[in-house]
Amino acid sequence: MSHDPARPRSRAAIALAILACATTAAIAATQSGAPKPDGAANTPAPAETIARGKYLVTIAGCNDCHTPLKMGPQGPEPDMDRMLSGHPASLVMPPPTKLPEGPWQVQIAATSTAFAGPWGVSYTANLTPDEDTGLGLWSLANFRDTLRTGKHLGRGRDILPPMPWPMYRNLTDADIEAVYSYLRTIPAIDNQVPEPVPPAG
Ligand code: HEC
C-alpha cells in the first residue's frame, strides 16, 4: 500500500472545516437566541380536564395580565375578543418615564399587558394556540418546564416580573396539564408580542 501524503492533510482539512462549521452553527444558535418549542400533540384532552383548566385559568387571574383591557361603559374591562393573546402588537409603548425615587416603582400600560419596573419592560405573552405567535407548537413539557423553572421553555431566558411563576410552580402536574389543555382549546389569535426591553443603564 503506497502512502499518499496528501490524504492526512486533506483529512485534517476536512476535520478543520467540520469544526469551523460546527463553531459557526453554535454561534448562530446562540445569536438566534431563543430555543424552539418541541411541537404539540394533537390528541384532544378529556372534557373534564379542559373544564378544570378553564376554572384554574379563571381564578388564577391569567386574564388580568394576558388579556388586554379595553374601555367599556363601566370603565376598563378585559377585551375578550383578544382573550389571552398578550400585549397587542399594535400598541407600541413609548419608553417608560424614569423610575422615581421611593416606593412607587412600577408603571403599567392602560391595557395591563406591559409593565415597566427595575427589571426593564416586560410584555405579557400570547397564550393562545396560534402556531407562529402563541403557544401552538408548545408541548406539555415545554409549558410545564416554563412554569416550574421560570425560564422560557424551561431552557431559555429568565421569565420577568410580574409573571407569578414562583407561585404557579406549585401547581400539581395534573393542574398544569389541565391549564395547558384548556389553553389549546381557546381561539388562536395572531399577535406577535414584542421582546422585553432591558433596564435603561
Ligand atoms: C401579574 C401578571 C401576570 C399574571 C397574573 C400571569 N402572567 Fe403569565 N406572564 C406575565 C408577563 C409579564 C409575562 C412575560 C414575561 C417575560 O417576557 O419575561 C408572562 C409570561 C408567561 C409565559 C411565558 C411565555 C414564554 O414565551 O416564555 C407563560 C407560559 C405564561 N405567562 C402563562 C401564564 C398563565 C398560564 C397564567 C395564569 C395561570 C399567567 N401567565 C398569569 C404576566 C402575568
Model description:
- The protein is an alpha+beta fold and 201 residues long.
- The chain has a domain at 49-90 and 106-142 and 173-183.
- Helices cover 35% and strands 9% of the residues.
- The protein is built from six helices and five strands.
- The strands form two sheets. A three-stranded antiparallel beta sheet has the order 3-4-5, with no helix packed on it. It has a two-stranded antiparallel sheet with strand order 1-2.
- A hairpin with a 2-residue loop joins strand 1 (69-72) and strand 2 (75-78).
- Helix 2 (47-59) packs across helix 6 and helix 4 (140-149) packs across helix 6.
- The protein is globular.
- Mean pLDDT is 88; it is low at 1-8 and 12-31.
- Heme C binds next to helix 3.
- Residues 57, 60-62, 64-66, 115, 122, 124-125, 127, 146, 152, 159-160, 162-164, 168, 179, 196 line the site of heme C.
Keywords:
single chain, alpha+beta, three-stranded antiparallel beta sheet, globular, binds heme C
Task: Break the fold down into its secondary structure elements and pairings.
Elements: H1 6-32, H2 47-59, H3 62-66, E1 69-72, E2 75-78, E3 107-108, E4 114-117, E5 120-123, H4 140-149, H5 165-168, H6 173-183
Antiparallel strand pairs: 1-2, 3-4, 4-5
Summarize the structure.
The chain has 201 residues and is of the alpha+beta class. Helix content is 35%, strand content 9%.
